[in-house]
Write a structure and sequence with these properties.
Shape of chain A: elongated
Order of helices and strands of chain B: HHHHHHHHHH
Low-confidence stretches of chain B: none
Largest sheet of chain B: none
Mean pLDDT of chain B: 96
Strand content of chain A: 25-35%
Strand order of the largest sheet of chain A: 6-9-8-7
Number of helices of chain B: 10
Order of helices and strands of chain A: HEEEEHEHEEEE
Distance between the termini of chain B: 37 Å
Number of strands of chain B: 0
Radius of gyration of chain B: 18 Å
Oligomer: heterodimer
Distance between the termini of chain A: 38 Å
Helix content of chain B: 55-70%
Number of strands of chain A: 9
Structural class of chain B: mainly alpha
Structural class of chain A: alpha/beta
Number of helices of chain A: 3
Mean pLDDT of chain A: 94
Shape of chain B: globular
Chain lengths: 163, 255
């Protein structure tokens, strides 16, 4: 019989459409997983990284498709919720490692409101130097900012901190 | 519908309309921004606004049975929109767009900050989410207002002139709704007056740092009417353009 753990395992194979290998679990997007007592119906609630993220419908479909593909369930419901809105501290340690490997600086852990200062001196994902500078907090997608490393002379992207 | 429900509905519609219209205005800078980073910034801010508008229309649909987000956003009659005049104005030069973005986003930021504690529970998480996104919009606006306000003589003069044009329009954000009392008594939203107060307290010191002179709010006639469906001549052509594709084939499953 399908268990909640099986569903979480399946969700680890649902990836961000733009960063393969980075799963919706790594990103901290999953708010809850429910399995009916008979194991036949599954409900997943997730929260988007940004309200305007164009990948929301894709992720919704991917979650349902992956669960159907891997688990013997009769129905899958996927809901979007903002009850516990996403923040960048929800990204797991594994998620941060994957981001780094892919050339993205992971967001710092933040507790206070974002100020421009926290966006400066972000460690470069290529060389590790903190001799870096924020170029613009608006990058190729809503969740990414653009920085420049004065040590290795390369631009790099950062997954933006959001609280 | 009871007054409390009407009050919430009215509040959500005007917020969604403001976001949608200013989002479309910002998107008009795509390909025209003065530098590439600004082009991308305005495009990103536009995307956030339109996405937030969508989220609010979806909430309206789920909670109050209004039409789906596309119908609400694109197919209502002009006088059914509840946006303020500030967001309707054409982009003009970059100075006006920037000052509008600054004045509007500081108001939005406080509006959603206040709504985090609303007794209308479904808005709380959304408000928290939007606030964290709008924070980036404010950071962007503040940097440029300071930079151009204290830049060259020309940039300063342009920013001051833009501020004087935009300020009465911005006061129109806070046009009282017929439901102010209900919203306040039911702890749904502390009201437009309270919001305006917080807004003024926030923008004044930033404008001072930028060497810009804020007009005296008591001597300015606010541009009211938008919240009751009376709009400037700029809204109808914008709606026409925004909705052209949808109206061309409303039954299309995808474009």
């Amino acid at each position: 019989m399908v268990t909640e753990q099986d569903v979480w395992k399946a969700l680890e194979q649902v990836y961000d459409p733009e960063i393969p290998e980075l799963s919706v679990v790594d990103l901290g997007m999953i708010l809850s997983v429910d399995v009916a007592p008979d194991g036949k119906a599954v409900k997943v609630v997730f929260t988007p990284t940004f309200a305007a993220c164009p990948a929301i419908p894709v992720i919704k479909e991917d979650i349902a498709a992956k669960i159907r593909e891997l688990l013997p369930v009769e129905s899958v419901t996927v809901e979007v919720s903002y009850d516990q809105p996403w923040n960048s501290n929800r990204i797991t340690e594994r998620g941060r490692q994957i981001l780094k490997q892919r050339g993205f600086a992971p967001p710092p852990h933040v507790t206070a409101e974002i100020e421009l200062e926290v966006l400066h001196t972000v460690p470069c994902p290529y060389c590790g130097s903190t001799n870096t500078e924020l170029q613009t907090p608006f990058g190729p997608t809503l969740c990414r900012a653009i920085h420049y490393c004065h040590n290795c002379h390369q631009s790099f992207e950062q997954f933006k901190p959001v609280v | 519908m009871d007054p409390k429900q009407e009050a919430i509905k009215e509040l959500l519609i005007k917020m969604a309309d403001d976001q949608l219209i200013i989002g479309h205005r910002h998107s008009e800078w795509i390909g025209l921004g003065p530098i590439l980073e600004e082009d991308i910034a305005l495009a990103s801010i536009a995307q956030d606004k339109v996405g937030q508008s969508y989220t609010l229309f979806q909430l309206l649909h789920d909670q109050f049975g209004t039409a789906d987000p596309d119908t609400m956003g694109f197919l209502r009659a002009e006088n059914e929109y509840r946006c303020c005049h500030l967001v309707e104005y054409p982009n003009g030069e970059y100075d006006f767009s920037l000052i509008r973005h600054f004045l509007f986003d500081h108001a939005e930021y406080h509006r959603f900050d206040m709504l985090q504690g609303s007794t209308f529970e479904p808005i709380r998480g959304i408000a928290r989410k939007f606030k964290s996104e709008i924070k980036y919009h404010i950071l962007h606006a503040d940097v440029w207002v300071r930079r151009l306000g204290t830049g060259t003589e020309e940039s300063h003069q342009r920013m001051q002139a833009a501020l004087e044009t935009a300020f009465p329009l911005a006061l129109g954000i806070f046009e009282p709704s017929p439901y102010e009392q209900v919203l306040i008594e039911e702890n749904i939203f502390p009201g437009e007056d309270a919001l305006r107060q917080r807004w003024l307290e926030t923008i004044q010191p930033i404008l001072e740092e930028a060497s810009l002179q804020m007009p005296d709010p008591s001597s300015v006639e606010p541009a009211y009417g938008g919240r009751r469906g009376y709009h400037t001549e700029h809204l109808a052509p914008l709606l026409e353009e925004m909705s052209w594709t949808l109206r061309y084939d409303p039954e299309a499953e995808r474009w």
